[in-house]
Design brief:
The structure holds 2 protein chains of 2 kinds.
Chain A (H helix, E strand, L loop, with lengths): L6 H14 L4 H21 L12 H25 L8 E6 L5 H13 L3 E7 L4 E6 L5 H20 L1
Antiparallel strand pairs in A: 1-3, 2-3
Helix pairs in contact in A: 1-2, 4-5
Chain B lengths: L1 H4 L3 H27 L3 H4 L3 H23 L6 H30 L25
Classes of the chains: A mainly alpha, B mainly alpha.
């Protein structure tokens, strides 16, 4: 076992430790010791290590997700404010995913969940189908395209 | 609250605007819990509070403490990250429980089991089946 099995995790832990306490030499040392032990614990728990192949696409992904969260916030607020006069048009949607990487799937789950209006319900890893619930399901193809083309393709480029 | 008096006008306006935005979104999300009809629709309402509801309050807090203590503040970013990352865990748990109940009762509005006889989500995080 190497000294630092997860260098990025260790670095993030040190930064988090110093952000929560203070940026001093003492906390840098203490945080480094804790981060080293934590990454050993992580290595013992889960040997699968995610490989990020294209770093430069990550800021782009974060950017489009933030914009989509703002847009879907506005959409869901208008649905709630419009209230019962609105006709019923929410529904379930099954999407076939080609994405297999566990980390990428976890990130997709965070994206789908944190954009109001779409909720991740169930992923079946044996045949790669994802069941989501959409609050404003007017055009099924539009939502399938959103997940497939906007997020999944980018995540596959980054992770696979 | 003596610090608040030292706040310059532009910062006070920005802090109030973000606070109002965040709390309004959280409030509308809560109202959505009472107004939306089905359980699956109600799953969407609280995510208003966990996305830009949290975001607005976090932004306000960052501006306030960065201006009054004259140093950058990072803790709020961590709060934002952890709220965003942990929301799917709760939401999936609730959704899975609801799906399981509705399928056990053979509710026609819910899609049936994806494929009978396979291990559902054996690799997915948080799946217990």
């Amino acid at each position: 076992m190497s000294v630092l099995p997860y260098p990025l995790l260790s670095l993030s832990l040190v930064l988090m430790w110093m952000a929560l306490n203070s940026f001093t030499i003492g906390h840098l040392l203490l945080g480094s010791v804790i981060a080293t032990f934590a990454s050993w614990g992580m290595a013992a728990l889960r040997p699968h290590k995610p490989h990020i192949r294209r770093w430069h696409l990550l800021p782009y992904l974060i950017g489009i997700v933030l914009i989509d969260i703002v847009r879907s916030n506005i959409a869901v607020v208008s649905i709630i404010v419009a209230g019962r006069r609105q006709r019923q048009r929410s529904g379930f949607l099954t999407i076939h995913l080609d994405l297999k990487d566990q980390t990428a799937l976890a990130i997709l789950a965070v994206i789908v969940t944190s954009t109001p209006g779409t909720a991740w319900l169930e992923y079946n890893s044996s045949n790669g189908t994802l069941l989501i619930h959409v609050l404003d399901l007017v055009d099924e193809q539009e939502w399938t395209d959103l997940v497939k083309n906007r997020y999944e393709r980018l995540l596959m480029e980054i992770f696979e | 609250m003596s610090q608040a008096a030292d706040l310059p006008l532009w910062a006070a306006i920005a802090v109030s605007a973000f606070l109002l935005l965040g709390s309004a979104l959280a409030l509308i999300g809560t109202i959505g819990l009472t107004r939306l009809q089905s359980f699956y629709e109600r799953l969407h309402a609280p995510t208003l509070g966990t996305s830009w509801g949290t975001g607005g309050v976090v932004m306000a807090s960052m501006i306030f403490f960065t201006v009054t203590e004259a140093r950058p503040v990072f803790q709020e970013i961590l709060i934002g990250i952890f709220v965003t990352v942990t929301t799917p865990v709760t939401l999936m748990l609730l959704a899975q429980a609801a799906l399981h109940r509705d399928r056990a009762e053979a509710n026609p509005e819910v899609p049936p089991w994806a494929t009978a006889g396979t291990d559902l989500e054996k690799d997915a995080p948080g799946a217990v089946d």
